[in-house]
Amino acid sequence: xxxxxxxxxxxxxxxxxxxxxxxxxxxxxxxxxxxxxxxxxxxxxxxxxxxxxxxxxxxxxxxxxxxxxxxxxxxxxxxxxxxxxxxxxxxxxxxxxxxxxxxxxxxxxxxxxxxxxxxxxxxxxxxxxxxxxxxxxxxxxxxxxxxxxxxxxxxxxxxxxxxxxxxxxxxxxxxxxxxxxxxxx
Length: 185
What we know:
Blueprint: H1 2-12, H2 15-31, H3 40-58, H4 65-70, H5 77-96, E1 118-128, E2 131-141, E3 146-158, E4 161-168, H6 175-179
């Protein structure tokens, strides 16, 4: 009986047994990974961006005053003022130059003249505690082929509410800067 106990103890201390136990432990740890949870700011900030684009795609997408007024609730007051300023300049230009195309020719929120067919919210990066940048992918389907573009949406937290403050296209052009330019053309 004593010899059986000694042989079991020596097997438990053998290098093979220790190696197998260590290998099994490492395998279990690697296979049980912890999910990569998104930052709470990103989760909260994605909602107004998704709501903005859902509303935008579900309604008129043209760059007109009536449509912009309906989207005010998604935008920071500063950015909304810039958009209205751009619309005022555009209306003056069209009145004075009826035969010319306005500076904004298409949809600045999707950076296109032809409206995309769908969108998807992508990655999010926290820039500051109250500022995030959210990637939005735009998709077009044509009779032959398709296209995809990326926009980066800057979202600020103001008065406990996340609001869109800027739209940046794939060439890193900001609507804030575009709408703040000195001359219309």
